[in-house]
Amino acid sequence: MTNDADMLEALVNTGILLSSEHSIDVLLEQTLKTARSLFGAEGASLYLADSGMLHFRIFSNPVLEDKLGPEGVRKAYKARPVKIGPGSISGYTAYAGESTIVTDAYNIPGDAPYSFNTSFDKSSGYKTVNLATVPMKTRKGKVVGVLQLVNLQGLDSFSDTAMRAMEAFGAQVAVAVENATLTEELKKAQYETITRLAAAAELKDPDTGDHLRRMSEYSRDIADACGLDEHTVELIYYASPLHDVGKIAIPDDILLKPGPLDDDEWEVMRTHTVIGADILRNPHSELAAYARDIALCHHERIDGKGYPSEIKGDDIPFAARVVSVADVFDALTSRRPYKEPFPAAKAIEIINEGAAKGQFDPEIVKAFLGIAGS
Amino acid sequence: MTNDADMLEALVNTGILLSSEHSIDVLLEQTLKTARSLFGAEGASLYLADSGMLHFRIFSNPVLEDKLGPEGVRKAYKARPVKIGPGSISGYTAYAGESTIVTDAYNIPGDAPYSFNTSFDKSSGYKTVNLATVPMKTRKGKVVGVLQLVNLQGLDSFSDTAMRAMEAFGAQVAVAVENATLTEELKKAQYETITRLAAAAELKDPDTGDHLRRMSEYSRDIADACGLDEHTVELIYYASPLHDVGKIAIPDDILLKPGPLDDDEWEVMRTHTVIGADILRNPHSELAAYARDIALCHHERIDGKGYPSEIKGDDIPFAARVVSVADVFDALTSRRPYKEPFPAAKAIEIINEGAAKGQFDPEIVKAFLGIAGS
User: Fold this and answer.
1) Which of A130, A134, A209, B316 is deepest in the core (most CB within 10 A)?
2) In whole angstroms, what separates CA B93 from the centre of its chain?
3) Are the Cβ atoms of A12 and B161 closer than 8 angstroms?
4) CATH fold group of domain A190-372
5) Does residue B308 have a cis bond before it (omega within 30 degrees)?
6) Does B139 touch chain A (CB under 8 A)?
7) Choice among B75, B127, B140, B247 that is catalytic
8) What are phi and psi of B33, to 5 degrees?
């Protein structure tokens, strides 16, 4: 067992690591190594809770690694998910939400709410002497996993501070794990808004689904060819299927009219841009903001002769300028009740003319030609 | 300055606090007090970053509090939001993402990227001697705020460990703050999915908006009267406006038909339940799962004679049973093209008969009568 100064150093390091280490995997790995050296343990392993079970996530144990190799250890651990509840040591620790100290693994009193499973030792040839298992508890008291240290020096005479330092460790890791999970869930929730709306928008017209998939792929490829960063390309890819979401509110007799629309009908049809922006008003996420911009501005023209706002040039959001090219290209190359599909070469020619006439952004069309020609 | 053992104790406590303290406010308050005593500082204050500015959040400074009173301190701090960037000490700390040690506030070298603003001391009569300002940095390197300690004992001879312990503090608080923010954003994002879809569903029919508002209020009140917990009542309140979202896909000539529907038209109309469930398939959040259950099952009957699945009794999700009562009650008491609104007493009578005939859950209707009669 190390002294207070060392323990302080280690806790400080973990604290700083929490705020400096981008990758959750590296963070967990470093934490295990620090915990091992700090509490004088031969090995450490970490399990995350999911649907009532503990699943192995990561380990640090050179002795065991010498015996089985890193892959062997991982396989041995992975094969043993553990039920959260009385029974096993780690399962009980997660269940009770309290640290469990086992000073002699092979002599656990019969009335303990857990017993030591010897099968791991038997199959690996490892000799477990003692174990300290700490719950990883979040601020709301939720146990997100456990941290298990094995074969600690002087576990019999562990100080109260050492025990609590161990729990502080568990808490720090829990918060980091929870943050990683929340970040992931937040992204999913933001994408869910878009996916559900797109699903709703597709319902009226079975052809729409294919059009949306193709045009979001074209939009992604064009955005990429324009040299946008990966994150922005992804935003455009996911936001573009919502460009026509406002059509939900257009009456069927206009939306589904087999013949050409008259002037009044066109006027109604054009409102799908502002209605789409209205459905997406006050966006809370970057993704929803992109979707709103695209819905509102994908019929604007670079020369200011588009709709609904007749804005021009750089006043039109870049994403909307990308989507307008993708949208028209897919319309040209698709079969419609009133027209045959144009061959790609002809459609490219029309897009190119569109750029010359002030419909599209010439830079974006240049990027489009670079990939469409290939 | 305290010794290593004390510092360890404090960091351990903060670590454990991170995982035990439910309220972020109490957490921050405790952290400031601990930081103050640990680093021998007269005062501590915490600022959170938002849109390029630092905003005061919380303080702990008995000397200043004696002078101005707690409200006076809060007002004095709140009146001074600080720009993130070179200029002020806290603004520079957040900007640079590095700790700033000022050993003599009134003698800062002229070439420093910050200066000390004396106006606070002047107006409050407080005497700032020195300052240690630490960025609160998350795992992704984002500065979410700064922690500022004022009038520290022996700041001139602060050890390297003490400095790093201070940064570990900042990191721990940053992670906790980030966690609280993420939780809040996740909730918002999950509600956004619902709000957007409801906005889209309302567009076809201007009357729908009022109906949705009323029936979600009725649903909430009935759920509450049934004795459900606050969280579930809130889920039902927010999910219920999506009960008819599937109507987005019903053709206008059926959806908006002024007269009664024939059998074939009814068959189409009834599909709004399964279409709604389809729009909400594979829900990622509890809220979306409630919305899907309600959309699918709000026309089922307790006797199994409803649609689309003809399930009965407890097989119908409780939330859907609640919403079916609220939905029918609002329909009865509203004006429709083909009918005058029923008076509330008559509508209540019809609902009560509906329970007797096996349309509604008698327990839910009992709860409804309890509040509807009052």
Assistant:
1) A134
2) 29
3) yes
4) Hypothetical protein af1432 (1.10.3210)
5) yes
6) yes
7) B247
8) -60, -45
Neighbours of B69 (CB within 10 A): 11
Per-residue pLDDT at B197: 85
Q: Do A193 and B192 touch (CB under 8 A)?
A: yes
Chain B hits for A136, Cβ within 8 Å:
19
Single out the residue of B43, B46, B42, B36 nearest to residue B10, CA to CA: B36
The pTM assigned to this predicted structure is 0.74
CATH number belonging to domain B186-372 = 1.10.3210.10
Tell me which residue in B11, B18, B280 faces A8 most closely, judged by beta carbons.
B11
Report the largest interatomic distance among the alpha carbons of chain A, rounded to a whole angstrom: 89
Of A186, A190, A203, the CB nearest to B248: A203
In chain B, the residue whose alpha carbon lies closest to the alpha carbon of A139 is B19
Domain boundaries, chain A: 4-177, 190-372
Q: Which amino acid is at A10?
A: A
Tell me the one-letter amino acid at A93: T
pLDDT at B360 over 70: yes
| CA distance to partner chain A, nearest, from residue B336 (Å) | 21
Say if the Cβ atoms of B196 and A279 lie within 8 Å.
Answer: yes
Count of CB pairs separated by less than 8 Å, A with B: 205
Please name the residues between 217 and 276 in chain A that touch chain B, using a CB distance below 8 Å.
245, 248-249, 251-253, 275
Instruction: Look up the ipTM and state it.
Output: 0.70
Q: How far apart are CA A56 and CA A69, in angstroms?
A: 16
Among A250, A211, A210, A248, which Cα is nearest to B247's? Answer: A248
What is the β-pairing status of strands A82-83 and A100-102? unpaired
Cα of B208 vs its chain's centroid, Å: 27
Which tokens is B17 given?
């606090």
CATH topology of domain B4-179: Beta-Lactamase (3.30.450)
A252 contacts on B by Cβ (under 8 Å):
251-253
Residue A266, SS3 per DSSP: helix
Q: How many CB atoms lie within 10 A of CB A268?
A: 15
Check whether the bond before A308 is cis (ω within 30° of 0): yes
Residue A288: closest CA among chain B residues belongs to which residue?
Answer: B192
Query: Could you read off the pLDDT of A321-333 as tens digits, one per residue?
Result: 999 999 999 999 9
pLDDT band at residue B1 under the 50/70/90 scheme: very low
Q: Is the CB of residue B114 less than 8 Å from the CB of residue B89? A: yes
Class of domain A4-177: alpha beta
CA distance B175 to chain A (A): 7
Q: How far apart are CA A206 and CA A201, in angstroms?
A: 10
Q: Which amino acid type is present at position A105?
A: A
* Residue of chain A whose Cα is closest to the Cα of B7: A8
Instruction: Tell if the CB–CB gap between B138 and A19 is shorter than 8 Å.
Output: yes
- B142 lies within 8 A of chain A by CB: no
Q: Structure tokens of A166? A: 């161990």
Name every residue whose Cβ is closer than 8 Å to that of residue A6 and which is 6 or more positions away in sequence: A38
* Model pLDDT for residues B30-87, shown as the tens digit of each residue: 778 888 887 889 999 999 999 999 999 989 999 999 988 888 888 888 878 899 999 9
Q: CB distance B16–A168 less than 8 Å?
A: yes
Which of A4, A7, A196 shows the shortest C-beta gap to B279? A196
Cβ contacts of A5 on chain B, cutoff 8 Å: 4, 161
Could you tell me how many residues make up chain A? Answer: 374
Q: What are phi and psi of A147, to 5 degrees?
A: -110, 125
Cα B186 off chain centre by? 8
Alpha helix (H) ranges present in chain B? Answer: 4-20, 24-38, 62-78, 89-96, 119-124, 160-202, 208-225, 230-239, 252-255, 263-270, 272-279, 286-297, 318-333, 344-356, 362-372
CA distances from residue A145 to A98, A120, B18, B152 in whole angstroms, order as listed: 12, 20, 16, 39
